[in-house]
Amino acid sequence: MQCLFVGMHEYTWHYPRLLKMDFHSLDMDPEQAVYGPAGRHTIGSATNMSAFYPEASFDVVVANGLIGWGLNERADFERLMEQCHRVLKPGGLLILGYNDTPEHAPFEVDIAWRDLFAPMAPAIPGVTQARHAMNDSYAHVFIFGEKRPDPARAAA
Question: Where is the Methyltransferase type domain positioned along the sequence (predicted)?
């Protein structure tokens, strides 16, 4: 299973080992490369990931800690969603993690934006809905969506 993790940091150093997948990572800060897997980390922007990865490359994309921490405008969020849709395989899983506070989510974070993803509750113990609040002091939330066919291609 191919996984792309977007947004590396010191607290993610163990994720490549923990997630038993063919783990790739992306972060625009070159200093974060040390936390990605050797030979499978790319330095670049989440809003341009299809420049680094072919279409339909990944089964799972995890974009955590981007919204409100660099992706601060609605237009950036929309580009992120489009890029995730491009690099995910049909039926692939998108996991968005963010802090649901006005200063870090100044716009609606909607997994179903433009019908690119269908909200879904993944088969993860303790997760029963497409939106899963962590109930921590950061107001961290994960939302889950399954890639839908491209609306433009489906209409053609």
Answer: 42-96
**Domain ranges in the chain?**
2-147
Block residue for tokens 């947004």 = 7
- CB-based contacts of 124: which residues, under 8 Å, 6+ apart? none
- Residue 145, class by beta-carbon neighbours within 10 Å (0-12 exposed, 13-18 middle, 19+ buried)? buried
Closest CA to 69 of 40, 42, 35, 101: 101
Q: Between the CA of residue 20 and those of 2, 23, 143, what are the distances in Å? A: 10, 8, 21
State pTM to two decimals. Answer: 0.91
Fold held by 2-147: Rossmann fold (3.40.50)
Do residues 114 and 151 make contact, with C-beta atoms less than 8 angstroms apart? yes
- Kindly give the parts of the chain with pLDDT less than 70: 12-18, 151-156
Q: Which residues pair with 64 in a beta bridge?
A: 97
